[in-house]
Design goal:
The complex is a heterodimer of chains A (242) and B (279). By secondary structure, chain A is an alpha/beta fold. Chain A contains 8 helices and 10 strands. In chain A, α2 packs parallel to α4. Chain A is globular and about 55 Å long. With 279 residues, chain B is mainly α. In chain B, α1 crosses α13. The chains are: A alpha/beta (242), B mainly alpha (279).
Chain lengths: 242, 279
């Protein structure tokens, strides 16, 4: 039931290489941070896992299925975007319910069940009572928690977070990452977390992959990476950005 | 006392005065003239002129044309805006300029294009005649010319809006399991609806009022291929001033309705745009 990424490559239109043979293995339920500067390919890798981009070559296996052959909308990969991507014309409750309400009639929960689920999720992300608000009426931290609740509503098999706290101020960032880690431990969903903030990566993840120019420079537990940087780039990246 | 950044009151009053004077002289007065000329011989005469079969037929033709052209251009406009704003492809900026083409081409030329293609002496003329299909001097030609002229309105309104909104919400919907259609109807369409309505309104106003392009392809057959603007011209050239202005009043009235709706939408739409930026 683990995630195995094997030699994934991706070129952008115009020829620039985004990923040049990325391989990575993570056990079921792991919390993996993809850490690197902008342009290192971490978001591209995440989008490939979510089905929002296609890999040129390479394979991904997750829970023993050929993950890249599964269409994005059938993957049940909860994706959380840096700028929230909430549906601006829907209330918070409608946003969270979206993934359930669009299911075909056969597999759609009843209205009552959906309402119940929304209520549970609002409690889980500590936004009780805000279900009738619109996204524009919430703070950044609240919006990102709504986005997370929306992703969790579909009972995702994998949680993909693209710089989820990047647009928030330092204090909220810190609170949210502690909260996110606790949530992860409670739910046990395999989580991939993209960030350029090494402190954040080391604080929150079980495993950190340091990326640079479309390659993984080093992959391991936070302590190991910190203690023994594998390459000059990792050494440099860790010591400068802090 | 006036604020540090305020202009002298004289300048302010002069500017406001000039604007009001201009609006009254060049916009309001002519509009009133249209209505007053129509009512010169009493409301009965104007009403009678509108009841004339040729006038009724022109009103009908105008509505039919708009009813076909506007929905089609709405669909094309949304499709074009979608393609341009949500995808990257080669030749995108060229396509965007082509969408604007009807704005920069004289309407008469847009009419002539269709005559050259579908007219008796045109490329497809002989073939069309053999199969007894009438396009020029008939409804299809009028609709085609109107569509050409009004094509950019919806697309132009939506492209900046949709570009600004990006693809994030659609991607989120997809990752939550939504199909393309569900994403369009539940996510994309609701977030562009006011902008879309606004574009449709402008498109409709132009579709009903278009003269030049339609004039070339219509053939001016009274009671058959004259739209309202064409019929106004015919009546006017016949010295039937009351009738001409009566039909013109209907057009002017439609314009006023459009203007009212447009102001309302602008007011609504402003909120929407603000919400987009707050988001």
């Amino acid at each position: 039931m683990s995630l195995v990424i094997d030699s994934v490559t991706k070129r952008f239109r115009g020829g620039a290489a985004a990923l040049q043979g990325v391989s990575l293995t993570a056990p079921q339920g792991a919390f993996v941070a993809l850490l690197g500067p902008s342009g290192s390919g971490k978001t591209t890798l995440l989008r490939i896992l979510g089905g929002l981009d296609f890999a040129d070559t390479g394979t991904v296996r997750f829970a023993d299925v050929n993950w890249l052959a599964v269409p994005a909308r059938e993957r049940k990969a909860g994706f959380v975007f840096q700028h929230y991507a909430l549906f601006r014309h829907m209330t918070v409750a409608k946003n969270i319910a979206f993934g359930l309400e669009i299911r075909p009639r056969r597999s759609r929960p009843s209205k009552v069940d959906i309402a119940l689920r929304v209520k549970e999720l609002l409690a889980l992300v500590q936004l009780e009572g805000l279900g009738e608000r619109y996204p524009s009426q919430l703070s950044g931290g609240q919006r990102q928690r709504v986005a997370l609740a929306r992703a969790l509503a579909i009972e995702p098999r994998m949680l993909l977070l693209d710089e989820p706290f990047g647009a928030l101020d330092a204090k909220v960032r810190k609170e949210l990452r502690i909260w996110l880690r606790a949530l992860h431990d409670k739910m046990g969903i395999t989580t991939i977390f993209v960030t350029h903030d090494q402190e954040e990566a080391f604080a929150v993840a079980d495993l950190v992959a340091v990326m640079n120019q479309g390659r993984i420079e080093q992959y391991g537990q936070p302590d190991a990476v910190k203690r023994a940087p594998g390459t000059a780039f990792v050494q440099d990246f860790i010591s400068t950005s802090a | 006392m006036r604020g540090a950044t305020e202009d002298h009151p004289l300048i302010r009053w002069a500017l406001v005065g000039i604007t009001i004077g201009f609006v009254v002289l060049f916009l309001l007065l002519p509009l009133l003239t249209v209505f007053s000329a129509a009512l010169e011989k009493g409301i009965g005469a104007a009403w009678e002129a509108l009841g004339d079969p040729d006038a009724l037929s022109s009103i009908k033709l105008t509505f039919i044309t708009a009813l076909i052209a506007v929905p089609l251009n709405t669909v094309f406009g949304v499709a074009a805006a979608w393609a341009v704003s949500k995808y990257d492809f080669r030749g995108k900026s060229l396509l965007t300029s082509f969408i604007d083409l009807p704005f920069s081409v004289s309407p008469v030329i847009s009419g002539l294009i269709y005559v050259l293609i579908f007219g008796l002496q045109g490329w497809l003329g002989p073939w069309l005649r053999e199969h007894d299909i009438k396009i020029i001097f008939a409804l299809p030609g009028i609709v085609l010319a109107t569509m050409f002229v009004t094509f950019p309105f919806v697309a132009r309104e939506l492209i900046p809006l949709m570009t600004d909104q990006g693809r994030d919400e659609e991607e989120a919907a997809m990752s939550l399991g939504a199909s393309g259609l569900k994403t369009f109807f539940r996510v994309t369409l609701p977030s562009i609806k006011w902008g879309l309505l606004y574009g449709v309104l402008l498109c409709n106003a132009r579709a009903m009022g278009e003269f030049g392009a339609v004039s070339v392809v219509s053939g001016h057959i009274r009671g058959q291929t004259n739209t309202m603007p064409l019929h106004v011209e015919v009546l006017y050239n016949d010295y039937q001033f009351v009738a001409a202005f009566a039909v013109a009043s209907v057009l002017a009235f439609l314009a006023l309705v459009t203007l009212t709706l447009k102001s309302f939408l602008e007011w609504r739409y402003a909120d929407e745009i603000a919400a987009v930026h707050r988001h």
